[in-house]
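Colleagues,

For the teaching module next term, I've prepared a clean inverse folding example: a structure given as tokens, and then the sequence designed for it. I'd like students to try predicting residues themselves before seeing the answer, so please don't circulate the second half yet.
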């Protein structure tokens, strides 16, 4: 049977669609393509302000004039989400006005990406509407004083922050400062800094940190921790960030660790069994409300066993410990040793599960 043909009578079926549906179509298109429809007709030009999410990547940065014109075509319409990716430092004078424009439109989500070392304008942190912020690769936030190398993220309205720093200079990591009293979610990836200042209330629910140290050791296993902390390589600065995070995250319920091995230093926080001064003060784990602890890549060394004992003894709200034993190890012996540790757990309801 021959396929049926639809007679349109030469009519433009797209133009016959309602504005609400056309705006949804524009929303699904790349921002550059959506903006180009404005030349089709006055109706299409008027539809563009209905697109509230703008995404400009490195492939379209050569069309800086197009980006500026797109913002002009939007009129006074608000922007919900603004994503900008660029890689040339020479484009900095073009980037700042675009960011300012988005902030003036009370943008809710701002995502800035640049592989080159760039300092974003500190004015963006004075926004009272910004809820979600992403600073990736070379985008640094800092104070205007060039003599101060502290990287800062602050804002009373910000609830979700994603940062990914990969600068090669040690001076770029003197201190990281977070002043976000409404923060709920934090995803932070960077080389370890010399110091951290974290100021947020009890609102934080989830945090993912990937902290990389400056010295690397081939025999050391990585330790990524999701929801609470993530450490990929271990060197001379230990785990000093983890106690700070746990104290500031009373709602944290799940801690995931991939590899317990790390270099013992006098800079480790009291969350670590290698902190020799922990007996002189109250361990931060005692007030931590973590209920589920997941450990991957467990090899059963003496240090790992002691670390597990430390967790079980001090995590008073712990209900479940999930352990993934590393391959090519004595599985039965390791699981027996860990099972015996349950007798030292401060939580009588704690159970252990091997995955």
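(Answer key — instructors only)
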């Amino acid at each position: 049977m021959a396929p049926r043909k639809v007679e349109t009578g030469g009519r433009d079926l797209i133009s016959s669609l309602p504005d609400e549906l056309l705006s949804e179509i524009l929303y699904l298109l790349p921002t550059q393509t959506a903006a180009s429809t404005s030349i089709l007709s006055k109706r299409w030009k008027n539809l563009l302000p209905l697109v509230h999410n703008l995404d400009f990547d490195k492939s379209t940065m050569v069309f800086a004039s197009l980006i500026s014109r797109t913002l002009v075509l939007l009129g006074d319409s608000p922007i919900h989400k603004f994503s900008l990716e660029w890689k040339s430092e020479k484009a900095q004078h073009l980037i700042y006005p675009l960011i300012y424009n988005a902030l003036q439109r009370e943008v809710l989500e701002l995502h800035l990406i640049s592989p080159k070392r760039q300092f974003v304008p500190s004015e963006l942190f004075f926004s009272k509407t910004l809820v979600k912020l992403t600073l990736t690769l070379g985008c640094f936030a800092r104070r205007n004083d060039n003599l101060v190398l502290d990287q800062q993220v602050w804002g009373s309205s910000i609830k979700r922050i994603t940062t990914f720093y990969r600068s090669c200079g040690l001076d770029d990591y003197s201190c990281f400062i977070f002043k976000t009293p409404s923060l709920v979610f934090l995803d932070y990836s960077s080389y370890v800094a010399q110091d951290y200042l974290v100021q947020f209330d009890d609102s934080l629910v989830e945090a993912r940190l990937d902290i990389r140290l400056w010295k690397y050791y081939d025999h050391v296993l990585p330790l990524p921790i999701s929801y609470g902390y993530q450490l990929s390589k271990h060197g001379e600065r230990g785990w000093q960030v983890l106690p700070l995070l746990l104290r500031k995250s009373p709602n944290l319920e799940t801690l995931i660790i991939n590899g317990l091995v790390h270099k013992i230093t006098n800079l480790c926080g009291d969350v670590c069994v290698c902190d020799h001064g922990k007996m002189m003060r109250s361990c931060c784990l005692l007030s931590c409300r973590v209920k589920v602890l997941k450990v991957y890549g467990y090899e059963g060394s003496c240090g790992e066993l002691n670390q597990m004992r430390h967790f079980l003894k001090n995590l008073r709200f712990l209900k479940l410990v999930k352990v993934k034993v590393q391959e090519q190890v004595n599985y039965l012996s390791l699981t027996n040793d860990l099972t015996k540790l349950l007798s030292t757990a401060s939580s009588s309801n704690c159970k252990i599960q091997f995955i």
